[in-house]
Write a structure and sequence with these properties.
Length: 124
């Protein structure tokens, strides 16, 4: 007899990880903290609060995949930001490697910014 996986949120599949939950929580917190150290050189807000990070996946072998975007495809920081993200995430203890994927689907808009970012940029 197979059991149906349970999930806290409806329509969200349960994900089994070989990483102990405590370590997964620590990695997640430290990766977010590392992402918050990366700033778009033209905007005084970190890329996490700007909403430029779309997804972070941590594989069982502790490889981290980051999907991110830029404020615009013509962003002057396009060449340097992905490398800055890779370096920041790679500095987290326990991470075995980092891959950064740049996407423009969906395109970034100001609605992705946190309240903290809106306040810092006076966009109320």
């Amino acid at each position: 007899m197979s059991e149906t996986p349970t999930s806290v949120e409806p329509n969200v599949p349960a994900i089994d990880s070989s990483i102990p939950q405590e370590e997964l929580d620590r990695l997640t917190d430290e990766i977010v903290a590392a992402l918050k150290t990366v700033y778009d050189p033209e905007i005084p807000v970190d890329i996490y609060e700007l909403g430029l990070i779309y997804k972070v996946d941590i594989a069982d072998d502790r490889q981290v995949a980051v999907e991110m975007t830029l404020t615009t495809p013509n962003c002057p920081s396009a060449a340097e930001l992905p490398g800055m993200v890779e370096g920041a995430v790679a500095s987290v203890g326990g991470v075995s490697g980092v891959a950064v994927n740049l996407t423009f689907d969906p395109p970034w808009d100001q609605g992705r910014m946190s309240e903290e970012a809106r306040l810092a940029l006076n966009l109320w």
